[in-house]
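Issue: copy button drops trailing tokens. Both records pasted manually instead:
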Amino acid sequence: MIESRAATLIGPTAILMWSLLAALTVATGRVPAFQLLAMTFAIGACIGPLMWLFRPGAMRALRQPTLVWLVGVGGLFGYHALFFIALRLAPPAEAGVVNYLWPLLIVLLSSLLPGERLLHIMSSAQCLALPAPCCCLPAIVADSSNFPTFRVSLPRSSQPLSGPDTR
């Protein structure tokens, strides 16, 4: 019973931490993205071994193949690095919307895996949530100053596509 209760408490805690990630990242101000990434990974690296005091058998879980470590740590590093950089370069609301689309897309696209299917009601309800990002994404694409890489591929929305600048 205790394990079930702990699992039930861990779920909302994870959701709370994940939902606060964007707000706390923006609150860090001008800390460079990779320094912020190193600091957060250092905090995790210090807290993890402390948990071994309470769960001595948990250290066995660290015995994994090298590929598992590379994909796990590389995935966490890549996700957070890109997320921190995105929050530095784009407005936080739009970057957050793009970030929070991934769980929805994972659930929807998992129905395409062999032997998996989604209930029609569930997929319909999730598809109703898709228009929300469509309201924010045009603002990101239209204002190319949000992303330096867009300056190369997209004309600025306030400039004409051809001809001299009339400003």
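Record 2 (pasted manually too):
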Amino acid sequence: MELEIKFLPDEEIVAVAARYNIPWDEQMRKLQPDIRARGWLSQQNMEAVAVWLRISPGKQKFADNPPGAIEGATAIALSTCDESRKWHVLMDLPGVGKSIAPSVLHWFDDGNYPIATRPALWSCSAEAEDLHLSSSWLEYTKFCRATAEEHNVTMRTLDRALQRHYEEKRGK
């Protein structure tokens, strides 16, 4: 997978990110302190992530998880230092896919993770299908971390810019 941001320089990342005005980001920010303090997500929290991603309620299968599975898996994902394990433990949960797993880590893990939505991937010259393996997700994560660091922006700023760039170039 060859990754490349479809827009630059630094000021453009910041300017594009500033045009990202999605009101439901605030919902994720409100959940952060409690989830980070206790170290796991509930089914209700996972559903909130799906809503933030605009995934239709009927497409999630969170209710298919046995009692305690979401809490246990997210506790492992948010506490382990093994990045591949973070991916696998989340992806093993019914209802969690290639957009939800990275979003859980983006909002609630301290490890500086990018979101991996179709728009964000497109803005990095990738496709959602490219993230079928944890190694691909790790490559994307390292690329986004390096890009954010190189351009002196936060991961959230980079993610907002990637999303907004897609919307402006490909339409909403």
